[in-house]
Specification:
Elements (H helix, E strand, L loop, with lengths): L5 E4 L9 H8 L6 E6 L11 H4 L8 E6 L7 H6 L4 E5 L11 H10 L3 E6 L6 H12 L4 E5 L16 H8 L5 E5 L4 H9 L4 E4 L1 H4 L4 H6 L4
Parallel strand pairs: 1-8, 2-3, 3-4, 4-5, 5-6, 6-7, 7-8
The structure holds D-xylitol-5-phosphate and zinc ion.
Length: 220
């Protein structure tokens, strides 16, 4: 039951000293670039921010995965720096008011970017329906399911998370479902068969001797 999935290399595993060449090497074989932002608070690691995003040169759309405590403070920075789709974690948003998930998504749309919501392994998809409701679920372009605890590349895939793909579809979600963490040819196939639209891969692509071959092996 697999269909054509999009491949999104995570540049977290790339050589930052030659980012432009790293991206150019995989660009013809992939569909979008995944940019992982970590603040050392929401996750126990620090990566990079908007000033580095400005240096990411690509024809592909850039998905910015914000693993940070207060994403609403930096949305404009990331959109102005080249982010096409901004992904925030449901876990950091307020239950209501200015910084609720719905209001943060509204702000992203107002800035002219596409919207994404990410859930950590322990967060159920049901939370999204509770927080967003049917109407707002329709305004989400991408839901990112974490298949590792966010914070580091190169971790092992959590197979139990695959069930969330079908659950999201049952809830009526029609946008893109992306899977992030521990993706390789084997785990990627499992997710593609379960209905995933986007496979994010860091270590599997940038850690490979033959990156082109690795990227191609994810085309399901
Ligand atoms: C993890 C990040 C991922 C990570 C994936 O916190 O959100 O995007 O880079 O890396 P791999 O594919 O190496 O698990
Ligand atoms: Zn990510």
């Amino acid at each position: 039951m697999s269909k054509k999935v999009q491949i999104a290399p995570s540049i977290l595993s790339a050589d930052f000293g030659k980012l432009t060449q790293e991206i150019a090497e995989v660009e013809p074989y992939t569909d979008r670039i995944h940019f992982d932002v970590m603040d050392g608070n929401f996750v126990p690691n620090i990566s990079f921010g908007a000033p580095i995003l400005k240096w990411v040169k690509t024809k592909l759309p850039i998905d910015v995965h914000l693993m940070i405590e207060r994403p609403w403070l930096y949305l404009e920075d990331f959109v102005k720096s080249g982010g096409d789709l901004i992904i925030v974690h449901s876990e950091v948003c307020a239950k209501s008011g200015k910084n609720s998930l719905v209001n943060v998504l509204k702000k992203i749309k107002k800035l002219g970017a596409k919207t994404g919501v990410c859930i950590k392994p322990k967060t159920s998809v049901k939370v999204l329906m509770d927080v967003l409701g049917e109407k707002w679920l329709r305004h989400v372009d991408q839901i990112l399911i974490m298949t590792v605890e966010p914070g580091f590349g190169g971790q092992s895939f959590m197979p139990k998370m695959v069930g969330k793909i079908g659950q999201l579809r049952k809830m009526g979600f029609k946008g893109d479902i992306a899977i992030d963490g521990g993706i390789n040819a084997e785990t990627g196939k499992i997710c593609a068969d379960a209905g995933a639209d986007i496979l994010i891969a860091g270590n599997y692509i940038f850690g490979a001797k033959d990156r082109v071959k690795a990227a191609k092996s994810l085309k399901f």
